[in-house]
Amino acid sequence: MSVKTQFGDTIFALSTAPGRAGVAVIRLSGPEAHAAARALAAERDLAEERDLAEERDLPPRRAVLRRLGRAGTVIDEALVLFFPAPNSFTGEDVVELQCHGSHAVIEALSEALLSLGLRQARAGEFTRRAVENGRMDLTEAEGLLDLIDAQTQGQREQALRQMDGHLRDTYGRWREGLLDALAQIEGEIDFADEADVPDALSHAARAPLDRVADDIEAALSRAAQGRAVRTGIDIAIIGPPNAGKSTLLNQLVGRDVAITSPQAGTTRDIVEAQMVIAGMPVTLSDTAGLRETDDAIEAEGVRRARDRARQAHLRIVLQRGPAPDAPVQDGDLVIGNVDGNPEDINEINALEGHGVDRLLSRIDSLVRERFSGREPAGLTRARHADCARRALAATRSARTHLGAGPELAAEDIRRALRAIDELAGRSDIEEVFDRIFSQFCVGK
């Protein structure tokens, strides 16, 4: 049986999680997927009166019950689904074997497929074939990976939008605008001596270039929010020593994760706790009290606290009275830790827990406001932002060259288009492909 294709050969892999289960799915993809599945269906179905050839037949996009075996030995009864190319996940012939999820069944079917000339798929190879066959672009494949890894509702929603092609639509607008501008510029270059071509035609390219530049700038300004939803939101609790930061952390997460003590300077390093707020993954960080100190260990803790505060997406500034060592920035949530029952919305009693629920509700509202996860799918990865920044730089350069050098402006636009092609996965970026698809599970 010949199994060679332009992408290698016919592959198979377990697409469900390994281990004991009621059902397991083994996926096949490639030109010999259909023939291999038919070869496995060599045993008669429960309806003995049917012709053997009919039993081996696999109608497209319809689940059929078949006995699967090899060399006269029945391995299992399974549902078999055949998806002909190009209307399949990978764009190739795809077969799914929904068998019983025991190790013995999976092992026997794998050995049978190997004996037919198929090979085990590499990590992410099914999705990679889908990209190479034009069934999705690279950003949609990354959205699929994010959906598989999603642990919160916000991550799920964002991943679904990217998998549905929202980011593709965004960079598609950039591409169309750049092509419009390039057509105007090349019109002046190619027909400069023609009487019916207006002078300085390339100046008409400024409007589409302006729109593209503005659009990319807006996308880059939202990139941090998109990455925060995908990787998690960092909230730092900062303030002077003995303000009650560790006690507040314990109250917010509902368990003792940080050591508390009346002695100032107890917290020397960053103490973290994970929770879900507003459907988003959140890391809360308790930090060392901010003050000047001659203690080398405490001073290092203060340095780390300031670094974490700078990196955090949201800062809770906890204080007892004036707190000169905890500078307040725009967007900080400033909370006073008081004794007794707090009445002001900006006060809590961290020791007794009074007002903590109200504070948690305010954090929830801020997270929803700043990281809703419902804005258009954006530049959720560092790779996306890097491609967008290069496209923006080239677009800006093109605008500066419009008047003096249309040839230079045209080359700038081509550089911007190459950056967008890299974002989409249409350029020759084999190393990037290898890095991205290696993060997938083997059966995807």
Description:
This protein is of the alpha/beta class and 444 residues long. It folds into three domains: 4-132, Gyrase A, domain 2 (2-Layer Sandwich), CATH 3.30.1360.120; 140-222 and 378-425, Four Helix Bundle (Hemerythrin (Met), subunit A); 230-370, Rossmann fold (3-Layer(aba) Sandwich). The protein is built from 15 helices and 14 strands. The strands form three sheets. Strands 5-6-7-4-3-8 form a six-stranded mixed beta sheet, covered by helices on one side. The protein has a six-stranded mixed beta sheet with strand order 10-11-9-12-13-14, with helices on both faces. Helix 5 runs antiparallel to helix 6 (153-163) and helix 7 packs antiparallel against helix 14 (406-424). It is flat and about 80 Å long. The two termini are 25 Å apart. The relative contact order is 0.12.
Brief characterization of the structure:
The chain is α/β, with parallel strands linked by helices and 444 residues long. Helix content is 44%, strand content 18%.
Gyration radius over CA: 30 Å
Share of residues in helices: 40-55%
Helix count, DSSP H or I runs of 4 or more residues = 15
Which runs of at least 5 residues are low in confidence (pLDDT < 50)?
1-8, 43-53, 195-199
List keywords for this structure.
six-stranded mixed beta sheet; 15 helices; alpha/beta; 3 domains; Rossmann fold; Gyrase A, domain 2; Four Helix Bundle (Hemerythrin (Met), subunit A); flat; 444 residues
How are the elements arranged and paired?
Elements: E1 4-5, E2 8-9, E3 11-14, E4 21-29, H1 33-40, H2 52-56, E5 64-70, E6 73-83, E7 94-101, H3 103-115, E8 119-120, H4 125-132, H5 138-149, H6 153-163, H7 166-190, H8 206-221, H9 223-231, E9 233-238, H10 245-253, E10 271-277, E11 280-286, H11 296-311, E12 314-319, E13 333-337, E14 347-348, H12 356-370, H13 382-401, H14 406-424, H15 430-437
Parallel strand pairs: 3-8, 9-11, 9-12, 12-13, 13-14
Antiparallel strand pairs: 1-2, 3-4, 4-7, 5-6, 6-7, 10-11
Helix pairs in contact: 5-6, 7-8, 7-14, 8-13, 13-14
